Amino acid sequence: IPEMTAKGSRQAGPGKEYKATGVLAPWGEPAWFHALESPYYNDSHRRFQTYVRAFVDTHLLAYAQEWEAAGEAPLSARLKFAKSGLAFLDVPKEYRPKELMTIAGTPFDKLDVFHELILMDEMARIPSGVPLALAGASNVGAPPIFAAGTEEQKRRWLPGLFTWETSFCLAITEPTAGSDVSAIRATAEKTPDGRHYVVNGRKKWVTGAPWATHMTTAVRMGEPGRSGISLLVVPLNSAGVTIRKIHNSGHNAGGSSWVVLEDVKVPADHLLGKENEAFPIIMRNFNKERFILTVDCNRQARICLSEALQHAHDRETFGRPLASNQIIRHKLTTLAREVEGHWAWLEQIAYHVHIHGWQTKDVASRIALAKIQGGRIVEQAVRESQQIHGGMGYEKGVTMTEQISRDLRLKVIGGGSEEILSDLAWREEHKRASDRGAKL
Hints:
By secondary structure, this protein is of the alpha+beta class. It has 4 domains: about 1-30, no CATH class; about 30-145, Butyryl-Coa Dehydrogenase, subunit A, domain 1 (Orthogonal Bundle); about 165-280, Beta Barrel (Butyryl-CoA Dehydrogenase, subunit A, domain 2), CATH 2.40.110; about 280-435, Butyryl-CoA Dehydrogenase, subunit A, domain 3, CATH 1.20.140. The protein is about 45% helix and about 15% strand. It has 12 helices and 14 strands. The protein has helices at about 45-60, 65-70, 75-85, 115-125, 130-140, 145-150, 150-155, 280-315, 325-355, 365-390, 400-415, 420-435, and strands at about 10, 15-20, 100-105, 105, 170, 185-190, 195-205, 215-220, 230-235, 240-245, 255-265, 270, 315, 320. The strands form 5 sheets. A 4-stranded mixed beta sheet has the order 5-8-9-12. Strands 6-7-11-10 form a 4-stranded antiparallel beta sheet, with no helix packed on it. Strands 1-2 form a two-stranded antiparallel sheet. A hairpin with a 2-residue loop joins strand 13 and strand 14 (about 320). The longest helix has about 35 residues, at about 280-315. GO terms for molecular function: acyl-CoA dehydrogenase activity; flavin adenine dinucleotide binding.
């Protein structure tokens, strides 16, 4: 039976011992770090986690708040992240630099969804806008190229991600079309000579637009509804493109923007897939995007819990530590129960994805519900952490909890609001139940 040793390490089966790392206080890290055995992780995952933790601590953590305040990460930081091998793990190996074929001692093609889960969790330790500035915008803007791009398009655009010669953002949402993707109004009309499309429309909440070179853009080429939607890769240096940053409560470094397209000429060979057949391509993005947001919620709730727990031990009121009050301990253990249970659910979903992929029929509703739950947990964690911190929890620059309190709305609404995702989960689960023969 594994047990904690006197050195603070955990026995990991016969002959193996892992030194406890990271936050050593209760519930400061996922249980597999230094508490419970897990069937999901092996030595390659531990090496990978150590590598990612060291990179984040050395190159990001000390500067992230400064970049968040400035509204962007410097190009030098973006390049360093790209060269670390941690950026753009979805890019197929044939388009990656040769020197990035091994990461933390593991061949690139041996990385699995649990390596990705570790990366998502570690990157959530910094203000949420910064990962979007480092690579996150391309992580949502480039996947449609993997899914529907021609070989020529992939070779033209993907290798440049690692040098920042190319970078992408994704433009789906419009002022009048958010979760209802089929309602987009931006149009693209082919020129008489067939060499270009002329694009007109407005896009909103476009993450990373200020520093992107290209925008993967949903446009209408056909009839109303989902059957008339196409995807074009729009060069953002084109005449007629106007970008204006949106000033949100949080996620300042994410570069959320308005993009206005006025008679923008886009080469015809920038079409992804076929005309009017892009709706399924767009939908492919959402499961993973929502899962990333869900992991982000979990880690940031854990940060709130850790900060509150430490403060409860350090702060004395009326001659005794805050943590000596049963009501404070109850708040913290309630949060711990929620965070730990949610993480176990994420691991189960990750294992299903590991076996069946991101597009399996059973996964969309589970991710939707997990995202709702993650949002509820981080909202609760922010509230309780700020209550325990008192005025310090409301003061900028003192706790991560305060930054998270400004970032969390995007996590809850972005990628699909609670109301939309609840209904999606209902519909998907009833479809699956009907397939199994349930009579409802």
